[in-house]
Each structure stands twice: as structure tokens, then as C-alpha cells.
Amino acid sequence: MATAVIMPKQGQSVETCIITRWFRNKGEAISTGDIICSYETDKASFDLESPADGILLDTFFGEGDEVPVLVNIAVIGKLGETAEKFNPNILSAIPPATDDNKLPEVSNTLATSDELEPNEERDIKIRISPRAKRMAEHKKLNYNNLDGSGPNGRIITRDIEKLLTGIAAERNITSKEGEFTEQQLSNVRKLIAKAMHTSLQNSAQLTHHMSADVRGLLKARTKIKSKRAEDTNQQDITINDMICWCVIKALEKFPEVNSHLLGDKIRTFHKVHLGLAVDTPRGLMVPSVQNSAEMDLIKLSKELKSIAEACKKGSINPELIQSAAATFTVSNLGSYGVEMFTPVINLPQVAILGVCTIIYRPADLGNNTFGFVPYIGLSLTYDHRAIDGGPATLFLKEIKDQIEAFRY
Predict the structure, then answer these.
(1) Same fold for the pair 94-175 and 203-404
(2) Is 48 in contact with 72 (CB distance < 8 Å)?
(3) Does CATH place domain 203-404 in 1.10.287.110?
(4) Mean pLDDT in the chain?
């Protein structure tokens, strides 16, 4: 019996997803668990696994199509089985055009503010996805006369983008062939850009820099490597894991930093939900480790690695990468050799710690002896609307003290 492949619902607020790539073609054999396609929500990217063994009988949408959640996107079965009964375009065929429901021809013109005023009768007849509607209204684009290419004639983002391209062509916006390449921003890239711009535009961000002696951390790391050489089952605790551990301890002493700024209120959390910036092929994601202060170092290390891997594979729980899921974030660029940077706050959080590379600096070792000591750079960006410079500096110094006192 044929099995439908359904577009999953990732999170309560997700209404549509965009298919970004098909990994299997119609007629190919596929096994349970094989990646059949990848798709994006308005928060992240994911891979969709095949729910059954068999032949990919048909796919109902193409790459770039915006698909409502819980709709059939493909069907898997045996050779000879029919796929038509699973096709959402056939199941929900558009009724014949009449004078009452026929859509006017496409008009590639910019709308005035009056043309975008809501009309109750018109809204009932126009099918448009929420994402496409936001894009059209942001560009002040008249979509009322646009024929959609989605299911049941629904207007999707591809239709809006096509209309914008036509308008640009009419205005003779051209370029010399071969001078550059151009491609659409991915959904995740657009969201990252929007979040960064919103953060800088709507907060008073200031960054303090400090360095911490990491001889204790490096000794601990050497000991951990030695144990793993003898027993590979030992947890591989990294320098970043240790720093996150120290940050959590500092947050427990400075709870005002473990907060969200919500309009004219500051919500201070009694538990630490630590966010970790993760660089993935799909873009930057910031998953959170819930209740991280309740974990020992080994457990914390396992959880940090688990959420990072889930982000890279595209299997992270969408609820864990929402900005409000974490109470404080750590962004580590040390492995890239960055000596100092200004991290951007993940609103509504009130602060973020940037971790830089380790640099050896001359220092007094005592008894009139000088030598080179490894220091790690720490960059704390905080929202001056919620935290003053004094408390922010004391919090950053507490992280430094926790790092320098670390023993394993």
C-alpha cells in the first residue's frame, strides 16, 4: 500500500515550509530513513526522512515551492500503484472559473497605500500564504490581481519574487553579463539578517573586553585528552565547554544578566537556559540548553555537543532555537583565530559573551620572574537599557575569575 510523505509541522506557529532540495527523483528506490528532501521554515532548515521503503512514485511540489504544513508532498509505494489519489492539487481541485470567483489578469504595478487597504469581500477570494503577504506588503506590492502557482491557486513567495523581477525589468534595471552572479537569499539567511538588524536598531548595545588566564583550562584539557587516550568512552570536554560552565556559575551570582528585556519590564530568570551560537551550512543558529545550571560539567558538555550536532544535521527542535528559549548566549570564535569582536545580542536577552582566541602575553610569574602566559579574550555585549556599565563589568570579571580558578 502506498505511503504519503507529509510536510511536517515544525512548531506551533509554522504554517508553511519551503522545499529547498529534493535528494531523490521520481521512480527511484528509497528506504526508510533515507533523506528524501530538505525544507525551511521561518526559523530553521531541516531534512525530511522517508517514512517507508519502496519507489518514489511521484512528487507534488518542486524546489522553491512554499507548501502548507501537513500536506502531501510525495508518495512512496510499489511499481504500478497509483499516486493520483495522494496529489493535493487533484484532491483540492480549483472549481471552474465563474464571474464570481475568476481572478483578474496579473498586473505588474506598484500599489499605492490606498490599493493595499483591506477589503473584506476581496480577502475572502484571495489565497495567499502569510510569508508571501508580508513580502508583498513590505514592498507595497499589489497582489490582488496575481494568479498564484501554489496549491489551489494560492499565492506563494515565488509568485511575489517573480512579480518583483518583472517590475525591475520594466524599469530597465540591467547588468552586464558575466560581471557577477546573483542568487536569492535563503530563508534562514533572511531571518538572520532581520534578527541582527532588529537587535542593533532596537537596543543600546555596548561591548566591554577583558582577558582571562587559561593555564588552568589548558591543564584540564591536557588531562582530559590523556584520559581519552586510555579510554575513548571518556567525555571529550572542550575549552568551550569549560568556559560555558564558568559563565553559568557567573550568571548564578549576577542574575540580573540572566534576563529578558520586554518593553518596560525586565524578566529575570531563576534558571539558566544557556544559548550557544552554532555555525552551520544553513547559517547561524542559536540553540539553548535548558536548565543548564542543574547539570554537572560532563552532562553540560554532552548537551552542548548534542544541540550543535542537531543544528548541523537540521534536526534541532524548533522551540530550542527561538531567541526567547535562551536566557544568555555564548558565541565562540576562538577556533577561527579572532582576537576581539563585538557579538550582537540575541533579543530579548540583555547580554551575550563573545569568546576569542588564546594569545600568549608577557606576565609576572612572581619572584621577579616574567614569562608568557596564555590569555583568552572575552567580549561582553550588553543592553545598556537593562544593565549599567558597572554591573556589566563586575559580571565580566566574575567570568574571568571563574575561568582562572577552574580546576578539573
Answers:
(1) no
(2) no
(3) no
(4) 85
Flag whether pLDDT at 93 surpasses 70: no
What end-to-end distance do the CA atoms of the chain give, in Å?
57
Please state, in angstroms and rounded to a whole number, the distance separating the CA atoms of residues 125 and 25: 35
Phi and psi angles of residue 185, each rounded to the nearest 5 degrees, phi first: -65, 140
Global pTM? 0.65
Does the pLDDT value for residue 195 go beyond 90? Answer: no
Of 188, 199, 191, the residue nearest 343 (C-alpha):
199
List, for residues 261-306, the tens digit of each pLDDT value.
Answer: 999 999 999 999 999 999 988 788 999 999 999 999 999 999 999 9
Q: Which residue has the cell 520586554?
A: 262
Nearest-10 Cα torsion for 111, 117, 122, 125: 80
Distance CA 400, CA 355 (A): 11
User: What residues pair up with 58 in beta bridges, in sequence order?
Assistant: 75
Q: What is the CATH number of domain 3-91?
A: 2.40.50.100
**CA of 294: how far to CAs of 131, 185, 192, 396, in Å?**
39, 39, 30, 22
Q: Collapsing DSSP states into helix, strand and coil, what is residue 240?
A: helix
How is residue 64 annotated by DSSP? T
Task: Give the separation between CA 267 and CA 188, rounded to whole angstroms.
Answer: 28
Where in the chain are the domains?
3-91, 94-175, 203-404
Is beta strand 328-332 parallel, antiparallel or unpaired with respect to 274-276? Answer: parallel
pLDDT at 148 (0 to 100): 82
Q: Which CATH superfamily does the domain covering 94-175 fall into?
A: E3-binding domain (4.10.320.10)
Rounded to whole angstroms, the Cα distance separating 104 from 248 reads: 60
